[in-house]
Structures are given as C-alpha cells and as structure tokens.
Amino acid sequence: MTRAPASPAGEFTIGLVQMACRPLAARNHEAAEAGIRDAAGRGAQIVCLQELFATPYFCQREDAACFDLAEEIPGTLTTRYARLARALGVVLIVPLFERRAAGLYHNSAVVIDASGELLGVYRKVHVPDDPQFLEKFYFTPGDLGYRVFETRHARIGVLICWDQWYPEAARLTALQGAEVIFYPTAIGWIGTGEPGDDGLAERDAWMTVQRGHAIANGVYVAAVNRVGTETTEAGALRFWGGSFVCDPGGRVIARADGDTAGVVVARCSRRALEEQRRAWPFLRDRRIDTYAPITRRYLDDPPREVQRAR
C-alpha cells in the first residue's frame, strides 16, 4: 500500500493525471489508477483526473447510444475510486458522465475524501455547443451551484472545462474559501494537422485565462487535459495536453507536455496564498455595491436604478 507522505504544516501536494483515452473503458480505468498511484507515490495528497476520463470524447457527435455510457452516483465507478482513495490515503477528483434519472444527464465530478467518503458532486454549469463539442445534446447544465469541498488535505473547488473561461465561476468558488481550483478538461484542435498560429494562440489563451483566475482570486489553479487524437465519423480532435498548476501569482510551477500521457505533481503553500492576498488585496477592495448589473444578460439598456436616477 502506497500512502502520500505527510507534508509540512501549511503545505499540501496535488497531482494531475493526463491521459490518452482508449475505446475500452477498462483500459482507461487501468491507466487512471496507475496515474493515481504514481502521483500518490510522489507525494500527491489530492489527485485529479481529466474530464470524462473513462471514455473517448463522445461529444464529437450526437448519438443517443452514448447515453449508455453514463454512471449513477453513487455507483460502480464511485465505489471503485472510493476504495482506491481509502487505500492510498489521498483525495480524488473523479469526473464522470452522470446519469441522474432516465433522460437526465450531467457532466459531473465527484470529490472523494482520503477516507473513501464521497464528499459531494459538482455538475458542470457552462455547457458548450460548438462543432465537435456537442455537449448540449448530452448534458443538462449543473444545478448545484459552485461548490467548495473541505477535504482532509485542503479546501478545494472543482469546475469543469468550459467553466474555465468564466471569471464569475472562479470568483464565486474562491469566495467560498477554495485554496485551489481544479479544472478537469477535454480541449484540443479540430482535425489532425498542425495547429498553425491561430491554434497556438487558442492554446495560449486557454492557459492565460486560467492563470488570470489564479491572480485575480489569489488561489492555486490546476488544469488537467487529455492528449491524443480521437477520430469519429464526425471528424477528429487533437487534444493538446499541457496540464499545469499555477500559483496565486499566476506562475506556472508544474506542467506536462502536449503529446504524451503523464503525471504532474506540485506542492502548494498556504503561506504563498496569504502573502499574495496581502500584496494584492483584491478581495478587500471589491466594490460589491457596484456589481448588481452582472446578473443581467447584456447591458443594452440602463438598469432600473439608473433610469430612476435620471
């Protein structure tokens, strides 16, 4: 039995498992478990898998047969990873295709504590509908809100993929006391060729926006993506990997490459969280009395309070 060693007071260590997914779920579970054990053996106390890790990314096409891939919570998948979390003494973030009821499905992630206890579920709030990312066909938007989980090793938030582009989601997670925000992800380029300048700029934007969430909220951010090219009758997606961890100042402290499966491990310091927020006290200086219009879809006419004041 391999257990993560105890970390110094005020520190915790996280791990990300970057995988290339195969058609057989059993193979993906084997790879995920091997990655978790590797991360735990290198000191990781909290380990996150990538979005929809158990299968290839089926959302490239609309196919009702894919609903058969969904898992119940709790169920066989959560039982398996709860047993592993307990054996290793690590917290696990396990994304899955959730079957909530007949005809009702979510893109979700469960958080399992180091004791094997299922702490809760996050359901992806922002669901995309783009060419070869046809998620609205499969997933109902999450209705549990933005959540933070008090685990044995740290207070963590979980958001999923498309959520990573929305500063509101990161802010609301940070305001609940998250020390690190995890983003399990499945993102890449359409096609099998080289990405070109626009494609490289897209990958850079993906990384930049998440580093910005770390800076603006004074938290660690950890994004775990898949690798490999997955081809269906709808076309192909080339996932760009690049899983990374950045500190509260936005500095990348650990990163995987873009082509191969691997494990990223990074040590996080609560002292760094404290010092960053003292130096850049964004939470202190927020003008919450000015933010009411943010709940409107678009500000194409003055809000009522402005109209009354005229």
Secondary structure blueprint with pairings:
Blueprint: E1 11-18, H1 25-41, E2 46-49, H2 76-88, E3 91-101, E4 104-112, E5 118-123, E6 148-150, E7 155-158, H3 167-174, E8 180-184, E9 188-190, H4 196-217, E10 220-224, E11 227-232, E12 235-240, E13 244-246, E14 252-255, E15 262-269, H5 270-279, H6 304-309
Parallel strand pairs: 1-2, 2-3, 7-8, 8-10
Antiparallel strand pairs: 1-15, 3-4, 4-5, 6-7, 9-12, 10-13, 11-12, 13-14
What labels would you give this structure?
310 residues, alpha/beta, six-stranded mixed beta sheet, 15 strands, 25% helix, 27% strand, globular, disordered N terminus
- What top-tier CATH class fits best? Alpha Beta
C-alpha-based Rg, rounded: 19 Å
**Strand tally, please?**
15
Largest sheet: 6 strands, mixed
Principal-axis shape equals globular
Strand order of the largest sheet: 5-4-3-2-1-15
- Secondary structure category: alpha/beta
N-to-C series of helices and strands = EHEHEEEEEHEEHEEEEEEHH
Mean pLDDT: 94
Portion in beta strands: 25-35%
N-to-C terminal Cα separation, in Å? 70 Å
Task: Offer a quick outline of the entry.
The protein is an alpha/beta fold. Helices cover 25% and strands 27% of the residues.
Description:
- The protein is α/β, with parallel strands linked by helices.
- The chain has one domain (about 10-310): 4-Layer Sandwich (Nitrilase/N-carbamoyl-D-aminoacid amidohydrolase).
- It contains 6 helices and 15 strands.
- The chain has helices at about 25-40, 75-90, 165-175, 195-215, 270-280, 305-310; strands at about 10-20, 45-50, 90-100, 105-110, 120-125, 150, 155-160, 180-185, 190, 220-225, 225-230, 235-240, 245, 250-255, 260-270.
- Strands 5-4-3-2-1-15 form a 6-stranded mixed sheet. Strands 6-7-8-10-13-14 form a 6-stranded mixed sheet, covered by helices on one side.
- It starts with 10 loop residues before the first strand and ends with a helix.
- Residues about 1-5 have low confidence and may be disordered.
